[in-house]
Known about the structure:
Number of helices of chain B: 0
Largest interface: A-B, 23 and 24 residues
Mean pLDDT of chain A: 90
Helix content of chain B: under 10%
Largest sheet of chain B: 6 strands, mixed
Strand content of chain B: over 45%
Helix content of chain A: under 10%
Distance between the termini of chain A: 31 Å
Radius of gyration of chain B: 13 Å
Structural class of chain B: mainly beta
Largest sheet of chain A: 7 strands, mixed
Shape of chain A: globular
Order of helices and strands of chain A: EEEEEEEEEEE
Number of helices of chain A: 0
Radius of gyration of chain A: 13 Å
Structural class of chain A: mainly beta
Oligomer: heterodimer
Number of strands of chain B: 11
Amino acid sequence: xxxxxxxxxxxxxxxxxxxxxxxxxxxxxxxxxxxxxxxxxxxxxxxxxxxxxxxxxxxxxxxxxxxxxxxxxxxxxxxxxxxxxxxxxxxxxxxxxxxxxxxxxxxxxxxxxxxx
Amino acid sequence: xxxxxxxxxxxxxxxxxxxxxxxxxxxxxxxxxxxxxxxxxxxxxxxxxxxxxxxxxxxxxxxxxxxxxxxxxxxxxxxxxxxxxxxxxxxxxxxxxxxxxxxxxxxxx
Lengths: 116, 109
């Protein structure tokens, strides 16, 4: 247990569906992240929130929409996805963005997403 | 561009020693991290280097040479549970982590 939980653990959806991924951290951290992990590829940073404010959006398609209502919760809203979006979606948190030696990230178990 | 290179897969024998290399080219440098990821699980933090030299933590050690853009993770007295992927990541000038694709380590009895 890393202190970061994600639900659901597995999700199968059609291209016309709308679904949401949820992440919650119990570590009192101020920064939260969404990553996409595809087989044999580096982790791709999608979104970063620091003190609930979005600080990074790495050219992610608009069919992915993040939401951070407070520093403990992070959502990823999905709509009209494509089959190539099938991947493991990982949430992470860290104490702070500003201090490099505090940038150890704690990961949730991920949501395995399959788009049909 | 920013790039992290590490071998795709390595095989080692239980009880032996293995060294996993990582080379990097990034805009800025704010430390190098190693993470372990077992199949189907979340990555977990192993080590952090920001100064040149060797950091030892039990059976695992991590080395950094900033001038060469090079790091390695050394695993001693290998156990079957060490079979996992090992991810190298570098903090760039914006304190974001740039990740390698990971090295899958297979331990054989």
